[in-house]
From TrEMBL, chains A, B:
Active-site annotation: E403 (proton donor)
Domain Transketolase-like pyrimidine-binding: 346-517
Annotated positions for site Important for catalytic activity: H27, H258
Protein name: Transketolase
GO cellular component: cytosol
Underlying gene: tkt
Record's cofactor remark: Binds 1 Mg(2+) ion per subunit. Can also utilize other divalent metal cations, such as Ca(2+), Mn(2+) and Co(2+). Binds 1 thiamine pyrophosphate per subunit. During the reaction, the substrate forms a covalent intermediate with the cofactor.
Domain of life: Bacteria
Keyword Amino-acid biosynthesis on entry: no
Cofactor(s) essential for the protein: Ca(2+); Co(2+); Mg(2+); thiamine diphosphate
One example of a Gene Ontology biological process annotation: pentose-phosphate shunt, non-oxidative branch
Residues binding thiamine diphosphate: H67, G116, P117, L118, G155, N184, H258, F429
Keyword entries, A-Z: Magnesium, Metal-binding, Thiamine pyrophosphate, Transferase
Length: 655, 655
C-alpha cells in the first residue's frame, strides 16, 4: 500500500530537521512549510526519471528559495537518485558534501541551477522555459515537450529581478512555466507586512500571468491549483498558503524557524506531533518505497522518448546540441582571410556584428539579444529573427530594459542545454547584471556578454555611462573570461574563444569608436594566450607597452614616438588577463620581461595593473569618474594620448 | 500678457533641438515629448525659487529619464536660475560644461540627483519623499512640507529597481510622491510592445499606488490629472500619453528621435510647423518673461518660510542638520574608554551594533535599516523605532528584500539633506546594490553601507553567500571608502570616519565570526590613515604582514610563529585602502618599507594586492569561489591559517 501524502511529506520534514540539527546550521522552515506542495508536485506532476537526471526532456525544477536546500536534497534522495545518499545528507553543509548550504548545480546532477541569491532562480527559470519553447519550435513535440516548475518565497518575489523576470515571461507567453509561491507571510525580519503591502497576485496578473491560490497543506487543493495552472495558456503563479516550519509546535508560523536548527526539544516535540518514530535520518520502508516509486513514475515516458529520439531525423543533432558541442565544421577562417585581404577600420562593436554574421549563420544554437540597445550593441544579424510568442523558432530576444533579467534568462538558456546565448548592453550596466554574471561563472554556464561602449571613448553621455572600474571589477570574478579586443581580428578571435569554452561565461568589452586593424596575421588565435607581443622593439628594448582594446592603437603610436627617440619598445596586446595568467611562466616572462619598464595603458582604473607592471612600472588610466565631452577631448583631458604617454615614459627612463 | 503654455513648451523644444544639434549628440525626443507636461508642472505646481535652488523646503524634481537632460537644463535656464546660462546650454555635452550628457547633481545646484542609469532616479526619489515625511514628523509642517515629483520613462518602469522602489513607496504610503510617466510607447529598439506587454497602471495599483492618465499634450488635462494625484493620499503614477519628439514632422512618435540630433532639415521643418522663428538658442521676450515669472512664483512662500524657520525653536537645529554638520558634541571617547577598560571578543558586526548604540543616541540625524537582515546585520539599536506610515518620526526602515531599492532610497535620504542614512545587507549582496553604490560615490552622498558576513568566515551558506571578489571590486569604485575593521576599536573608528565624511559614501565590511580585541590604545583614530603598524617586529624586521578585518588576528598569530623562529615581522592592519593611498609617501614607505618582504592576508581575491606587496611579495587569499562548510574548516582548506602562512613566509625568505 502506498504511503499517504502526509507521511511522504513528513519524511521530508524529518530529513530537513535531522540534517539541520546535525549541522547545527541551515534552514528548516521552508522545507517543512513546502513539504506538502513538493510532495504533490514530485509524486504526481513532475516529469523526471531518477535514473537519468540529465534526460533532456525532463521537467525542470528550480528551488528559487535556495536556502531551503534540504527540500531538494530530500526529494532527490527519496526519489532514488544516485546522489545524494543518506550519508551525503548526514554531511549536510560540511566541506566536500554535495549537500551544500545552498543547492549547487555542479554538486548534484539533479540540481538544475544554483540558487540562493534571491529572485535569480525564478529569473533563470524564465530562460529554462524559453529554451524549452525555442527547442520545441526547432525540434518538435516529439523531442521537446516539458514544463518548468519553480518554488519561490517572498524574498524572490520582492527582489527587483522578479519584476524583470515575470515581465519577460508574461510577454513571451511562457505558459509552461509554473511558479509555486511559498506564501507563508514571513520574512527574516518578521511578518511580510513589516516591509510590503502589495497584492502580489494582482501584480502578476497585470504582467500577463495567470494566478491561482491553494491551501499549501491540502494535497487535493494543491492538485486543483496545479491542474488549473497547467490548463491556462499563460505562465502561472500558484499562491500556496503555507505555515513556515509546519509541524514544529510553538515555533511554526514564525521567523524563528527560518534559518536555524530547531534544537533537540522542538525536534522531539515535532516528531511526537507528527507521530514520527524512526531514528534520525531513517525513513520507514513503506514511505521509502512510495517515494522510490515516484522516482520511476516517468521511466516509460523516458524510454519512449529515447526511442523517438533515436528514430528522429533530427535526433542526433538534438543530442549533439544538448551535449554542448558546437555544430561541426564551424570555422572563422574564411572570415579572417577576408579581413586580412581587406583590412577594416571599425569599432569593435561593429567588428563583433560582422563576425556574428558568420557565427549566427553557422551556429543555429546561438540565440542573441539585447537589453534594448540592439542598434548600439550590434547584436542582431541577418540570420536572427525575433524570438517571441508568435515565433518561438526565432533566435533574437528583445529583452527590454532588463539587464539583470536578460543575464539571468541567459543563464537559464545555457543551463537548459541546446543553446548558446549571447546578449548585449553597455559595459557600465554590467553592474545592473552583476549578480547574474557571477552566477554564470559559478555555474559554469556558457553565456556570452556583449558589452559595448567600453570606456570614456563613448564620449558625451558622461560619467554615468562611462565604465571606469568595470573592467577590473569583472576580471575579479572567478571563472569569467573578460575580453577586450583591439581590432577586427582580435574581436573574431575572442568570439571564437568564447564560443569554444563550454565551461563558463565570457564577456566581450567592445568600443563605440572606430579602431584601425592592427593585426596583419591570423594564422593562430593569439588571443588564446591572453596577451602577446603585437609589435616588437626595433631599438634595444627598454620598455614594454601593455594595452587592451582601444588603447592598443595608442600604445602603437606611443611606441613609434619612443622608437624615434631611440628607445626600444614592445607593444603587447592583452585582450584577456585570465588567459594570460594561465600561460606557462616562461611565456609570461618572455612577454613581460623583468629587464624592461612595464607600462600599462587602459582607459579605466589603474588599480590592479600593478599585477603586470609591478610597483616600478607605469600605469596610464583613469582613477576617477569620467566626464561628458567628445571622446578625443576626454582622452586628451585624462592624459591618454600618444604624446603624453611617450613623454612620461621617456622621462621615467631618464630617472 | 503671459505666453501660452504651448509657446512656453515650444521654447523647451527649441532649446533641446538647438543644443543637441550643436553638440551633434544627445536626446531630443524626450524633452520634446514631455515639454508640455514639464511646462504645466514648473509653471503651476512645482514649489521652487530660482534665486535659491537649495531652499530646504522646495519641492524636489527628479528627471529619472536622465537622457532627456536638455529638459531640465532648459527649465532651469528659462526659470531664471543663475546656471545654466545660455552659454552653458550652447556648450551642452562639451567638456567642463555643467550641461553634461546626463544631469549631474554636482554640476548644477538645481539638479537634485544624478540620473541616467535607468530606474534609479525614481528609486532615489523614494528616499527624497521619505526624508520629507520623516523631517516633517520631526520638525513639523512649518519647516517641512513639500512634494517630490519624478519624470520617468518606460525604461525606468521596466528596470527591476522600479519594482523595489514602488513597493517601498506604496508600503510607506508616500503620498507626496508623484511620478509623471512619459507614456510614449517607444523604447530604443522600437515599440514598447517588442519587449513588454504589461498593464503598468494595474501593477502600480497592485502595489498601493493611485494611478491616473492624461493627454500629455493637453495642459488642462494634465492639470486635472495632477490635481487628482495631489488629492489622493497614496503615491501617484500619472500616465502622460505623449508623442516622443512631439513636433518633429515625419520623425515624432518613433525611436529615431530618441538619441540623436534631428539634423538641420528636420529642425527647420519642426520650427516651421511650430511657427518658431527666433535664431538658434534665442527665446522671444514674452516667452522668456513668462518663464522668468514662473521662477519667482514661490518667492513669497520661501521668504515666509525663512521667517518661520528663523522664529522656530527648532529652526537652527533644522538648518544645521540640512547643512550636513553632525550634532554638536558627538564623541565616541567614553565608548572607546569602556572598550579599553573591558576588552570584548566580538564579531565586528556585533561591535558595530554596540557603537551604533551610542551613535544613534547622540545623532538623531541617523536613520538605519536593513534589507531584511536586521538580526544578522545588527543595524537596529534601542534608539531606533520603526519608520513607517504609522510613525514617520521613527528612525529604522524595514527595507524588505530590496538591496538595490534600499541603496537608492538611502541616496535620496542623504541627498535630501537632514539625514545620515545607514543600511545593511550581506557583503555578497553588494552586487545587487552596486549600481546605487556607484551613484552614492558619484553624487558625493553620505550613505553608510553596513555589509556583514564579509568572507568565507560566514561558513556553511557556501559560495553564493561568500564574498570573494567583493572587497576589491568595491575598492575600485572612485570616492567610495571601503572599511574592513579588525576589532571593536577599529569598528568604532571606522564608524566615526564614515559619519564625519560628508562628501561621499562609506562601506563597512564586518565579520560574522567573533574576533579578539587587538588594539590596546584608542587615543588616536588610527584607521584615519588607512593602515598602520599594529604590532612592531621584535627580531630584526624582515617581513611585514598586512591584513584586514578578520585576518588581522591571523597575521598576529603568524607573526608570533615567525618571531619564534627569529624572523622579525611587523603586523600592519589596513582597514581602508583609499585612506592609506592618500597618506604622504614617507608614511606609506614607513608602513610598507622596501627592504621587507610584504605579505598580504585577506580572505578574498588576491588580485589587486600587488599594489602593496609588489610582485616579489606574497599574497594569501582565495582566488576561486568559496565552499560550504564550518568556517574554521574553510580557513584551513583555503590555506588561511597561522601555521600555513608562517611556514610559507619562512620558506620564501629562505629562497
Amino acid at each position: 500500500m502506498a504511503a499517504s501524502d502526509t507521511l511522504l511529506a513528513n519524511a521530508i520534514r524529518a530529513l530537513a530537521m535531522d540534517a539541520v540539527e546535525a549541522a547545527n546550521s541551515g534552514h528548516p522552515g521552508m522545507p517543512m512549510g513546502m513539504a506538502d506542495v513538493a510532495t504533490v508536485l514530485w509524486t504526481r506532476y513532475l516529469k523526471f526519471d531518477a535514473a537519468d537526471p540529465k534526460w533532456p526532456d525532463r521537467d525542470r525544477f528550480v528551488l528559487s528559495a535556495g536556502h531551503g536546500s534540504m527540500l531538494i536534497y530530500a526529494l532527490l534522495h527519496l526519489t532514488g537518485h544516485a546522489r545524494p545518499t543518506i550519508d551525503d545528507i548526514k554531511n549536510f553543509r560540511q566541506l566536500h558534501s554535495p549537500c551544500a548550504g545552498h543547492p549547487e548545480n555542479f554538486e548534484l546532477p539533479g540540481i538544475e541551477t544554483t540558487t540562493g541569491p534571491l529572485g535569480q532562480g525564478l529569473a533563470t527559470a524564465v530562460g529554462l522555459a524559453l529554451a524549452e519553447r525555442h527547442l520545441n519550435a526547432t525540434f518538435g513535440d516529439d523531442l521537446v515537450d516539458h514544463r518548468t516548475w519553480v518554488i519561490a518565497g517572498d524574498g524572490c518575489l520582492m527582489e527587483g529581478i522578479n519584476h524583470e523576470a515575470i515581465g519577460l515571461a508574461g510577454h513571451l507567453g511562457l505558459g509552461r512555466m509554473i511558479v509555486l509561491w511559498d506564501d507563508n507571510r514571513i520574512t527574516i525580519d518578521g511578518a511580510v507586512e513589516l516591509s510590503s503591502s502589495e497584492n502580489i497576485a494582482a501584480r502578476y496578473a497585470a504582467t500577463g500571468w495567470h494566478t491561482v491560490a491553494c491551501d499549501g497543506h491540502d494535497p487535493a487543493d494543491i492538485c486543483r491549483a496545479l491542474d488549473e495552472a497547467i490548463a491556462d495558456p499563460r505562465p502561472s503563479l500558484v499562491a500556496c498558503r503555507t505555515i513556515i516550519g509546519k509541524g514544529a509546535p510553538g515555533k511554526e508560523g514564525t521567523s524563528a524557524v527560518h534559518g536555524a536548527a530547531l534544537g533537540p526539544d522542538i525536534v522531539a516535540k515535532t516528531r511526537l506531533a507528527m507521530g514520527w518514530e524512526p531514528e534520525a535520518f531513517e525513513v520507514p520502508e513503506e514511505i521509502a518505497e512510495t517515494w522510490a516509486a515516484a522516482g520511476v513514475r516517468s521511466r516509460d515516458v523516458r524510454l519512449a522518448w529515447e526511442a523517438r529520439c533515436d528514430a528522429d531525423a533530427q535526433g542526433a543533432t538534438f543530442r549533439r546540441r544538448m551535449s554542448g558541442e558546437l555544430t561541426e565544421g564551424f570555422t572563422l577562417k574564411p572570415y579572417l582571410d577576408g579581413l586580412l585581404a581587406n583590412p577594416q577600420k571599425l569599432a569593435t562593436r561593429k567588428a563583433s556584428e560582422l563576425v556574428l554574421g558568420t557565427i549566427t549563420e553557422q551556429l543555429p544554437e546561438t540565440v542573441g539579444g539585447s537589453a534594448d540597445l540592439t542598434g548600439s550593441n550590434n547584436t542582431k544579424t541577418k540570420a536572427l529573427q525575433p524570438l517571441n510568442r508568435n515565433d518561438y523558432a526565432g533566435r533574437y530576444v528583445y529583452y527590454g530594459i532588463r539587464e539583470f533579467g536578460m543575464a539571468a534568462a541567459m543563464n537559464g538558456l545555457a543551463l537548459h542545454g541546446g543553446i548558446v546565448p549571447f546578449g548585449g548592453t553597455f559595459l557600465v550596466f554590467a553592474d545592473y547584471a552583476r549578480p547574474a554574471i557571477r552566477l554564470s561563472a559559478l555555474q559554469n554556464a556558457r553565456v556570452i556578454y556583449v558589452m559595448t561602449h567600453d570606456s570614456i571613448g563613448l564620449g558625451e553621455d558622461g560619467p554615468t555611462h562611462q565604465p571606469i572600474e568595470h573592467l577590473n571589477s569583472l576580471r575579479l570574478i572567478p571563472n569569467l573570461d573578460v575580453y577586450r579586443p583591439c581590432d577586427t581580428i582580435e574581436t573574431a578571435e575572442c568570439w571564437e574563444l568564447s564560443l569554444q569554452d563550454a565551461t563558463g561565461p565570457s564577456l566581450l568589452a567592445l568600443s563605440r569608436q572606430n579602431l584601425p586593424q592592427l593585426r596583419t596575421d591570423a594564422s593562430e588565435n593569439l588571443c588564446a594566450k591572453g596577451a602577446y607581443r603585437l609589435v616588437a622593439a626595433e631599438a634595444p628594448r627598454r620598455v614594454v607597452l601593455v594595452a587592451t582594446g582601444s588603447e592598443v592603437e595608442l600604445a602603437v603610436s606611443a611606441r613609434a614616438q619612443l622608437e624615434a627617440k631611440g628607445i626600444g619598445a614592445d607593444v603587447v596586446s592583452m585582450p584577456c588577463w585570465s588567459r594570460f595568467d594561465a600561460q606557462p611562466a616562461d611565456y609570461r616572462r618572455d612577454v613581460l620581461p623583468k629587464d624592461a619598464l612595464i607600462v600599462s595603458i587602459e582607459a579605466g582604473t589603474t588599480m590592479g595593473w600593478e599585477r603586470y607592471t609591478g610597483l616600478d612600472g607605469l600605469r596610464f588610466g583613469i582613477d576617477r569618474f569620467g566626464a561628458s565631452g567628445p571622446a578625443p577631448k576626454l582622452y586628451d583631458y585624462f592624459g591618454l594620448t600618444a604624446d603624453a604617454i611617450a613623454t612620461k615614459v621617456a622621462a621615467a627612463l631618464e630617472n
